[in-house]
Amino acid sequence: MSYQFITSAKLPTRHGEFDIHIFENEAGQEHVMLTVGLPIDRQSAPTDTPPIPLVRIHSECLTGDAFSSLKCDCGPQLNAAMHAIQKSGCGAILYLRQEGRGIGLTNKIRAYALQDQGHDTLDANLILGLPADARIYDMCKPMLDHVGVDKVRLITNNPNKLAYLVEHGIEVVERVPLLVGVNDENASYLATKRDRMGHLLDNEF
Ligand SMILES: Nc1nc2c(ncn2[C@@H]2O[C@H](COP(=O)(O)OP(=O)(O)OP(=O)(O)O)[C@@H](O)[C@H]2O)c(=O)[nH]1
Ligand SMILES: [Zn+2]
């Protein structure tokens, strides 16, 4: 699949002002990138060491990002990442339109119905005959290339995202862990990511 840059504009938010960039693949699927301080202006202070952009690869979660769901940690993670990137002055949010770990909104809600019956987040996908995690990350490299980023500090607990970037020639100088928005409703979801999905979490939930 190839990805094309379409357009960009300013986006003021309550965290500060971002540039918003839209990308599209051949199937017409849109992905979004919010940036601050990118591309890095190497002319203005050529002798300074350039900053390493702080980057968050975030998969769409309508229920968490827009509806403040307590079933996951997505909404607080998105807000914390936007805040941290603004504070650092240089970075990007890659907002990937792969809802429900790539199975789509309808299937995610089907999985939630199974979770209501006591299944965990991983088994719910498997019972539906769907992969535990169907996401791809091949849009990330062209999106980062667009703003000249080849080195990042990556905000994640997900080893798949680290592996993708490293395999595609993007240097991950640092992994920045992100644990926010833990509550009684999402504790078992986080424990399943830690115990059954290999996420880099060593906390008790
Ligand atoms: N199938 C399914 N998807 C879920 C469930 N809860 C959250 N999601 C999806 O999981 C994805 C969350 O992904 P990210 O925010 O990229 O985070 P992550 O892969 O958990 O890794 P981090 O970078 O460590 O946060 C979103 O697409 C959510 O819609 C669930 O119970 N079932
Ligand atoms: Zn979520």
Automatic annotation (TrEMBL):
Task: Summarize where GTP binds, as residue positions.
Answer: R56, I57, H58, S59, E60, Q77, E99, G100, R101, T121, T156, K161
Q: What is its EC number?
A: 3.5.4.25
Q: Does the keyword Acetylation apply?
A: no
Q: Does the keyword GTP-binding apply?
A: yes
UniProt-annotated binding residues for Zn(2+):
C61, C72, C74
Which pathway is this protein engaged in?
Cofactor biosynthesis; riboflavin biosynthesis; 5-amino-6-(D-ribitylamino)uracil from GTP: step 1/4
Task: Quote the Gene3D superfamilies the UniProt record gives.
Answer: GTP cyclohydrolase II
Keywords (alphabetical) are: GTP-binding, Hydrolase, Metal-binding, Nucleotide-binding, Riboflavin biosynthesis, Zinc
The record's free-text note on cofactor binding: Binds 1 zinc ion per subunit.
Q: Which domain of life is it from?
A: Bacteria
Active site location: D133, R135
Top EC class, one word: hydrolase
Q: Which reaction does it catalyse?
A: GTP + 4 H2O = 2,5-diamino-6-hydroxy-4-(5-phosphoribosylamino)-pyrimidine + formate + 2 phosphate + 3 H(+)
Q: What does this protein do?
A: Catalyzes the conversion of GTP to 2,5-diamino-6-ribosylamino-4(3H)-pyrimidinone 5'-phosphate (DARP), formate and pyrophosphate.
Family indicated by similarity: Belongs to the GTP cyclohydrolase II family.
Concerning NCBIfam families, the annotation shows: PRK00393.1 (NF001591), ribA (TIGR00505)
**What name goes with this protein?**
GTP cyclohydrolase-2
